[in-house]
Write a structure and sequence with these properties.
alpha/beta; Aconitase, domain 4
Length: 190
Amino acid sequence: MSREPFIIHSGIAAPLILDNVDTDQIIPSREMKTVSKSGLGDGLFAGQRYIAGREPNPDFVLNRPDFRGATILLSGENFGCGSSREHAVWALGDCGFRAIIAESFGEIFYNNCVRNGILPVQLSQENIAGLHRMVTINLPEQTVNNIAFDICEGDKAMLVGGLDIIGLTLQNEADIDAFETRDAGRRPWA
């Protein structure tokens, strides 16, 4: 399976500089009316984004005109903590986010981001504070506006290649076939 590769991305960065933003805040359970990835963006940060039903909260960063169309989200420590709700990542993707830059991430959330084509970048509070509205991320060079960041090679390969876990596995199809052939010769009963 493939998706849009993440090579170099420039976009508007919306600052939601809060610590411990959990997956229930990212998408409240009342907003999860589907198992499809499509349409979940409407529920993204619904508890903060809307007032009185679905009236947009003008004070919420994603409703401000200067951050409409943001594709990068800036946050604080422990972003995506809480339950392992993959819908949170789906909602971010459905709203067009390609990257989340935070001080740290919930481990399951981080992995869900990578597996769904969203780049999670960990930077210091000082580096995040120094980012402005327009941000450029170069994944092959591992930089955000020339600030270096770390990412494991497997995660980087998935994102740069536009691969999901199945696509990444299929890159080793010849090795898998060779192993199965050898194994069948060693264990014909299997």
